[in-house]
Amino acid sequence: MSGLGIDLGTTNTVVGTPEDGIVLNEPSFMLVREKDPHHALAIGTEARDLVGRNPMGVTPVRPMHDGVIVDLESAQAFVTAVIKRAAPSRRYGVRPKGVISVPAGATSLERRALLEVGHEAGLRKVGLIPEPVAGALGCGINPLEPRAHLVVDIGGGTSEVTAFCYGGMLSHRSCRLAGDELTNALYHYLRTEHNIIVGELTAERVKVGAPETGEGQSLVVEGRDAVTGRARLVTLETEEIVDALRPTTTGIVQTLAACLEDIPAQAIGDVMSEGLLTLGGGSLLHGLSQLLEETFGLPVKTAERPLTCVAEGATACLDHPEVVAAYSD
Ligand SMILES: Nc1ncnc2c1ncn2[C@@H]1O[C@H](COP(=O)(O)OP(=O)(O)OP(=O)(O)O)[C@@H](O)[C@H]1O
Description:
binds adenosine-5'-triphosphate; 329 residues; Nucleotidyltransferase, domain 5; five-stranded mixed beta sheet; single chain; alpha+beta; 18 strands
């Protein structure tokens, strides 16, 4: 079955097709003219690279917030540009079908907005699939089997913890503590403890490059001295990075604890033996799997392709409409 599987994330947008696999993987940024904010001049890396150096009159914007649409027209302009780039009509037809992933905790209004945007952006028939279910499917798990699965999806804007079984949800919790918040925490730590100001992309590089915990390693960071304004280097020890990120990682642990409490006793056995699956870019944070394993005493498995498995699962749904139907309300 032809069509597009789409993961519209707060940070990254990923599109797959059954024929060609992942055909687009770009930052969720759109460059617009301030006078015409609903027309995309550029999307993806090209738009993201102008953050902090945009000429007057044009602005890079993020069309998705916490995994959902806040401004219909902006989102429509973005999705239209994404589809045009990912799926030229000569290859995938003029109005391809689409399955779009949606946060498991999205409201019916947010789901309807996504359906409308998909249609208006040129998709013929649009199905929605909860992100953790799509991610699990993308990792080879059958979300229709009579066995409970527990997924922790740590994206850019939100962390979602979801348990599901046999086509239905068992328990779900989410929080706004995820990749962006981890980056923010490092930015503020450097500002308050070391008196240097760094750009968002530098704070992000510190987060991604953070050494494994407990190894006594360090990382050199370049920024601007908050007092003199001059460029300055700072050496960050691993322990400092862990401390700076602790409030955010603790929040994610608490969200998981709350979700676990709601899982029916019968299903807990499945979770205990299978463990939990982590996905989303935030699951790559060094030391996080270990923290979850130590806190909950459960085996933790990180998806092989944590940044694309949701789009892969949404794409797989094109051949498995029964999964979309089961998880459609
Ligand atoms: N190696 C890494 N270590 C830590 N964080 C990482 C790593 N690689 C990517 N990230 C973070 O993952 C986040 C993006 O993940 P992902 O693409 O899954 O989010 P998203 O789907 O766009 O967001 P959401 O699910 O909230 O809508 C970013 O905050 C990014 O900094």
